[in-house]
Specification:
Elements (H helix, E strand, L loop, with lengths): L10 H13 L32 H5 L1
Protein name: Acylphosphatase-like domain-containing protein
InterPro entries: Acylphosphatase-like_dom (IPR001792), Acylphosphatase-like_dom_sf (IPR036046)
Organism: Aspergillus eucalypticola (strain CBS 122712 / IBT 29274)
């Protein structure tokens, strides 16, 4: 399964976030973590999920 996401925050919180997702949850096996920098979006304060045609999430529904 492939998972894609975006995050923004302080440099310190983003580094911790990347470390945590690279380890994955207890029963997960993370094979590869790719990252790229994108422009921050002002005013975003919420977290949400979105289906994409390229993710495994849509197939699980």
């Amino acid at each position: 399964m492939q998972v894609e996401g975006e995050a923004q925050g302080t440099e310190e919180s983003l580094q911790k976030f990347l470390k945590d997702i690279n380890n994955g949850p207890r029963h997960a096996h993370v094979v590869k973590l790719e990252k790229k920098e994108i422009a921050p979006k002002d005013g975003e304060v919420e977290f949400g999920f979105m289906k994409t045609s390229e993710s495994g999430y849509e197939a699980m529904q």
